[in-house]
Amino acid sequence: MNQTLKKTKRVITILILSLSFILGACSLPGLSGAPENTIRIGTLNTTESQIMGQVVKQLIEHETDLEVVLVNNLGSSIVQHQAMLDEQVDITATRYTGTDLSGALGMEPVNDPDEAMKIVQKEFKKRWDQTWFDSYGFDNTYAFTVTKELAEKYGLEKVSDLADVAGELRFGVDNSWIHREGDGYQGFVKTYGFEFPKIYPMQIGLVYEALANDEMDVVLAYSSDGRIAAFNLKILEDDKKFFPPYDTSLVARNEVLREHPELEGILNKLVGTIDTSKMQELNYEADGKKREPAIVAQKFLEEHHFFEGVE
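Below the sequence we write its predicted structure tokens.
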């Protein structure tokens, strides 16, 4: 009986400590109780999101007297969406049309980029009083990728060109995509009408090195990843528009835009300023050359004259 009592006490103690930790985490700076005139920017735990968070942060700080804090490493698009709904962050730096169409909105994928953008802008305003800004100018979608040497050898320009040689090629792909509903492997086979007999599941971060080291012939990569340019790889055109568009924008709570009306004009300055090849370069500055996202962002803003004309 004494042993049972001791075990019960230990369990209660652990639960109390766990609850204290959770409550403490909820009151971390940047998540709740932010000081007045502080803007909280949420970012994902990706290099791309960290860079764009810094771009937004530094631009706001340069043009206003507002304090800006980053709420970094939000684990997924759903987590950052919930953080916005809970008013724990005011702006999310990287939102992707295809991701939030199926995720936050629970809608069917849309293949036309303009239509996808119109839907998310309309629905986010109507459902949650949030502004989905026009795209920065780049997307980050899945992309069938090969070396330029292989593309030249087989005359590869678009995904359909792989049909006649797929049986000879080693295909490296993120394991989750193989079993993914909708825009996963089975959907791909149905749309394009051919299969890869040699499929090698692997971590998405390893596909670039595998291709560059001649361990794979074709991989499914991310279109804005810096290693595509660094390793001299070639993205094949998704000529049947199988993958939904993943154009990238920032999203802001309208309550914050009403409180600080100058923000809308400042944030709109970033629309259309970064195409996919430029985002590849910025990502590689951080991933390949090991530069801090803050330094990469500052360099971009300086080179594109965002820091001029404001005292």
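The beta strands are 38-44, 67-74, 91-96, 130-132, 142-147, 170-174, 198-202, 218-222, 233-235, 248-253.
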